[in-house]
Design brief:
alpha+beta; seven-stranded mixed β-sheet; 14 strands; about 25% helix; globular; DUF1559; Pilin-like; DUF1559 domain-containing protein
């Protein structure tokens, strides 16, 4: 009996020693998969640019919403057959597109294996759709103004026809994509917040009155980055208002505090109101996010990156030339 107890004790010690190593190996494998996903998307973006001479737009505004840049690069991700079934000039939730079922399809390179919710469908009145973990760079705050068709300082905007020559800071110095979390809390369609970049989360809370809220205690209540084929920044993009993984707390009327994103005016819902957005890059990898640059390279950026540097990384023409790692 004593010998058996000794054996069990040794086995317990071995398990205690081996388990952390196994967990660390799994985390490393998931990080490598995440990086590879971004590399594959980067190839697709550049193949799109080679074919069209411009990078894919973040959407096309015709008085309604349209398909995201993710949807536009489908043929370059070995999804040509599915791409041929949809109409990009119609909302993803238009009956024609819903009938194809493409919006419910999970494209593996769009989701990070470390996100526990990435396999879940999002359900709403418009239909069922898959979430995403990689958002395109919509710049530092201002996104789009339908009155004069101007857009912000990022690389993927509504109606943009932007080639490499437009990115004067250099492709290797400018962000293309960064990680985002699925089922993110957010609110949108508020009073115009103006061009001043928010200094903190308290500034955003000033505009919550009358907003449309997409947040709540249930998973499906939180709708940010849940629609891979939809073009608005809170679904398919990120901005550099806040540093990676920075908490953006908002105390809602239900007594709960949510880590939020913000879109002042959902692109495609107004001919007169501009869009400003604070959509934070977030990751399930501890202390960092993976990001892809416009030259297709993939690097990690830590949470401690200086905010001025992070914002400089997001501008295509701000005359900054020093990337952060």
């Amino acid at each position: 009996m004593i010998e058996l107890q000794v054996v069990f004790a040794i086995i317990g010690v071995l398990v205690a020693l081996i388990l952390p190593a196994v967990q660390a190996a799994r985390k490393a494998a998931r990080r490598m998969t995440c990086q590879n996903n971004l590399k594959q998307i980067g190839l697709a973006v550049h193949n799109y640019q080679s074919a069209h001479r411009v990078f894919p737009p973040g959407g096309i505004f015709t008085g309604t919403t349209s398909w995201s840049a993710h949807g536009r690069i489908m043929p370059y991700l070995e999804q040509s057959a599915e791409f041929q079934r949809v109409r990009l000039d119609l909302d993803w939730h238009h009956p024609f597109n819903l009938a194809t079922g493409v919006q419910k399809m999970q494209i593996p390179v769009f989701v990070c294996p470390s996100d526990p919710l990435s396999d879940d469908l999002y359900f709403d009145d418009e239909g069922e759709v898959r979430p995403i973990n990689y958002g395109f760079n919509f710049g530092s705050w201002f996104v789009f103004d339908p009155r004069d068709n101007t857009y912000g300082d990022g690389c993927f905007h509504v109606n943009a026809r932007m080639g490499p020559q437009a990115i004067t800071d250099g492709l290797s110095n400018t962000l293309c994509m960064a990680e985002v979390k699925t089922f993110t809390s957010y609110f949108r369609n508020t009073a115009n917040p103006g061009p001043t970049v928010p200094p903190d989360a308290n500034y955003l809370a000033l505009f919550a009155g009358g907003a449309q809220f997409k947040l709540g205690p249930g998973q499906n209540d939180n709708a940010g980055h849940t629609e891979w084929c939809d073009s608005p920044v809170h679904e398919s993009g990120f901005t550099t208002v806040f540093a990676p993984n920075q908490k953006v707390p908002y105390l809602h009327s239900d007594g709960r505090t949510y880590d939020i994103d913000y879109n002042s005016r959902y692109e495609g819902t107004s001919w007169t109101e501009p869009t400003y957005a604070a959509v934070t890059s977030r990751s399930h990898h501890a202390g960092m996010v993976h990001a892809m640059w416009m030259d297709g390279s993939v690097r990690t950026t830590t949470n401690s990156v200086d905010l001025k540097v992070w914002r400089a990384m997001g501008t295509r023409n701000g005359h900054e030339v020093s990337p952060a790692n």
